[in-house]
Design a protein that fits this description.
The chain is about 20% helix and about 35% strand. The chain is of the alpha+beta class. A 6-stranded antiparallel β-sheet has the order 4-5-6-7-8-9, with no helix packed on it.
């Protein structure tokens, strides 16, 4: 092959490689945009210098994370697998000056933008859970309050003495080696900040 022909062939190959690289880059950008669109099925509410992150892990399960605006903690857990924490389902959202409404096919979560009062309802509009998130006085903690219907039982919190139903009790989330503990001793060995409510 003569030199001019060789140079032309190399130029064509270079153009083809550049086109292929551009296609790969475009595909990568599309994939990234799709991932960002999936992650955007969340809501972020700012109150002063605090942020409430809300995501629907399933059509029935909502996850709320409360943090300082500039120091959101890493999304880690010893109890919940990473794949489940990263799961998302489509969420429709609507905002007014007073309220943010998020909905999946089977549940709706309403959040008061000023008080962070929460209300969870089913597709028929029946109340399933209500409460509020309150920042702690030190700015580093928060308190989650929930309204419980008569007869609702509260289970969980890990190793705790006393009745299995935790309703009406006050408990400390701290692990300690409580030698010779009694029914009223708290905290004990394993504190797990997880509750299940059972309604009649």
């Amino acid at each position: 092959m003569r030199l001019p022909a060789l140079l032309a062939t190399l130029a064509l190959l270079g153009a083809a490689q550049a086109a292929a690289a551009a296609e790969r880059a475009a595909a990568a950008m599309t994939d990234t945009a799709a991932a960002e669109a999936a992650i955007s099925d969340t809501a972020t509410l700012r109150v002063a210098d605090r942020v409430l992150h809300v995501a629907a892990l399933t059509e029935h399960v909502w996850r709320l994370r409360w943090a300082r605006a500039a120091t959101t903690a890493p999304d880690t857990s010893w109890a919940v697998p990473a794949a489940l924490r990263a799961a998302r389902v489509p969420v429709s959202s609507r905002e007014t000056a007073a309220e943010t409404t998020l909905a999946t096919a089977h549940s709706t979560l309403r959040i008061d933008r000023h008080t962070l009062a929460l209300a969870l309802t089913d597709p028929q509009g029946r109340a399933r859970w209500s409460g509020a998130v309150t920042p702690g006085a030190d700015g580093a903690a928060y308190r989650l309050r929930a309204a419980l219907a008569a007869g609702t039982r509260v289970l969980g919190l890990g190793d705790k003495g006393g009745p299995l139903d935790r309703r009406g009790g006050t408990f400390v989330d701290w692990n300690t080696d409580a030698y010779h503990y009694q029914e009223s001793t708290d905290p004990l060995y394993k504190s797990i900040p997880f509750l299940i409510t059972l309604s009649a």
